[in-house]
Write a structure and sequence with these properties.
It contains 1 helix and no strands. It is mainly alpha-helical.
C-alpha cells in the first residue's frame, strides 16, 4: 500500500506540473494569436500605404509621359522651323548667286 501511496503522490505532482505546463502553453497560444492579429492589422495598413504609393507613382508616370510627349512635339516643331529657315536661306543664297 505504501508503494501505491508513493506512486499516487508522484502522479499527483506530475499532473500538477502538466496542468501548469498546459496553462503556460495556453497563455503562450493566446499571446501568439494576439500577435498574429496585430501583425495582420499592420500588414493591412502597409498594403494600403503601398496601394497609395502605387497610385502616386502611376500619376507621376503619366505626368512624365505627357511631358516627354510635349518635349518631343516641341522638338519636332523647332526642327520644322529650323528646316524652313534653312530652306529660306538656301533660296535667298541661290537668288543672290543668280543675280550676281
Amino acid at each position: 500500500m505504501a508503494s501505491d501511496n508513493v506512486d499516487l503522490q508522484f502522479l499527483g505532482e506530475q499532473m500538477r506540473e502538466m496542468q501548469s505546463d498546459i496553462r503556460q502553453v495556453r497563455a503562450d497560444q493566446l499571446r501568439l494569436e494576439s500577435e498574429q492579429v496585430q501583425t495582420r492589422d499592420h500588414l493591412a495598413r502597409l498594403e494600403k500605404k503601398v496601394d497609395g504609393v502605387d497610385s502616386k507613382l502611376e500619376a507621376f508616370r503619366e505626368t512624365v509621359t505627357d511631358r516627354f510627349d510635349q518635349v518631343v512635339e516641341l522638338l519636332k516643331s523647332s526642327f520644322r522651323v529650323l528646316r524652313e529657315e534653312i530652306e529660306g536661306l538656301k533660296r535667298t543664297s541661290r537668288l543672290r548667286t543668280r543675280l550676281n
